[in-house]
UniProtKB/TrEMBL annotation:
Residues 1-19 form the signal peptide. InterPro entries: 6-PGluconate_DH-like_C_sf (IPR008927), NAD(P)-bd_dom_sf (IPR036291), UDP-Glc/GDP-Man (IPR017476), UDP-Glc/GDP-Man_DH_C (IPR014027), UDP-Glc/GDP-Man_DH_C_sf (IPR036220), UDP-Glc/GDP-Man_DH_dimer (IPR014026), UDP-Glc/GDP-Man_DH_N (IPR001732), UDP_ManNAc/GlcNAc_DH (IPR028359). The keyword Signal applies. It holds the Pfam family UDPG_MGDP_dh_C. Residues 305-399 form the UDP-glucose/GDP-mannose dehydrogenase C-terminal domain. Belongs to the UDP-glucose/GDP-mannose dehydrogenase family. Keywords: NAD, Oxidoreductase, Signal. This is Nucleotide sugar dehydrogenase.
Amino acid sequence: KKICVVGLGYIGLPTAAMLANCGYDVVGVDTNKEVLDNLNKGKIIIEEPYLDDLVKKVVINKKLIGLNTPCEADIFIIAVPTPINENKRADMRYVINATNSIVSYVKKGDIVILESTSPVGTTTEIIKPILEKTDLEIGKDIYVGYCPERVLPGKILKELVENHRVVGGINEESAIKIAKIYKSFVKGHIYTTDTKTAEMTKLVENTFRDVNIALSNELLKICDNININVWDVIEYSNKHPRVNLLNPGPGVGGHCLAVDPWFLVESSPNLSNIIKLSRITNDSMPSYMFYSVEKLIKNTNKKITILGITYKPDVDDIRESPIIELIKILKENNYEISIYDPYVKNYPGIENNLMKCVQGSELLIIGVNHNVFKDINYEKVLKAMEGNLILDTRNSLDKEELEKIGFVYKLIGSK
Ligand code: SAJ
């Protein structure tokens, strides 16, 4: 069977490679020439453990090829981005374009699956009407459904296989046929339901995490205000069998948690109070980090170095990164800053020489806890710096060790 995967991003590419590895003939479609040129050489341009080896293997075996337009296939998978616009409403342009782009290739008996995280109703109200242009009967001549991805960037290949999946079919037959396809590589259970339930489930999962992080971020502010160490409070609270607080931090980034809860707010604005407030709380954290910086140094002539700007550790993704927001605020307030992140290649002002970067710095901000930062020689760093301050926004470094070598270490949310 032949599969056409439209969108070769963080989700489309690993899914395409996985299906190709299971024996399907897969065509990956993307409009980005750089992605296609690399893919057809067996290479990837994103940072994701083991994905490079898998892609290389299936491209060499000719099971996966990249094209810039869709083609005739038995199964179509749409995995394109669903961002939000400035009014915090879903921008469905890519989903609409992708669906339109496959219409002339869809034939009787084919299966069409949407994977992109989308507002509730997308499959029935956007995908279905577009596919009706084929004059084929939806659910009878062609099978349509929604199967959201649930993988964690950094662990994509592992979670693609191990996680349970939810498939929402436009009718039962569609759901069963789609579940069978995923069964080829998913070891977890595959639950079948209707499309709206599956769409809602995906949004709820990410909202759950966002709301819980917001609670911890709010606790951080409260603890700061009453002079208590929030990390101790979280540690002790989590000793309770039914409490599991998440980590506070500089804010919530990435293309999922910072976006998806807004789809729920959009659908029921007067009812989604906690969800909206959580988004606002998490979005307020970069400003709160700035306030923490200003408590440490209030002199615009001093240089600040930021270590790590991605939205979370050990990835190269800076989409919605709260540290990028913090950088913006620091710049607006005329701080001189230098930026170091070994995972990020093309960000304005990024420096790939750590020692050059910290030269003359008054303050070091740990923006994200990349694992490689543990191996930094902080003694050497301190010597190159002008001052001796560290602000850790991720609770990632050893206070005692740093203080022993002469740093003044400040962890957010601690006294
Ligand atoms: N974060 C905190 N505190 C925490 C955990 C995370 O501040 O305790 C921050 C991170 O630093 C990061 C953001 O939240 O900025 C999101 O990171 P994440 O690791 O929680 O999640 P993502 O965005 O990489 O992936 C999420 C996952 N969803 C859930 O865990 C419910 C993943 O399973 C989804 O597939 C993915 O969204 C998606 O694509 O929807």
